[in-house]
Amino acid sequence: MPDGWPEEMTQAGEALSAVMLEGPDEIYELALEVFHLAQEWWYALRYEHGDPSPGDTYHDYPSTDIGAATEMFLQAASRVLRASDQGLLSAPPRR
Question: Which residue, 95, 93, 94, 48, is CA-closest to 70?
Fold first, then answer.
């Protein structure tokens, strides 16, 4: 994850990375979509406010768009990880 990412984004991204490597194709594709959302959030944050400080959370930034994008990222990451944990996506693991 890029330096300066808020802690909740870093944790969700690391968990998604692990799932992407070990999970079935369905999980990989869902996680990739979530990462694209994170990229959009990151570029919007840097454009509006410059590089974030270590330890910042998205709550430290006033933009409604950034807050909404981050919420979507965290919710999507949570859903992908929950589906993986519960075995809801039953395709064979990626090779």
Answer: 48
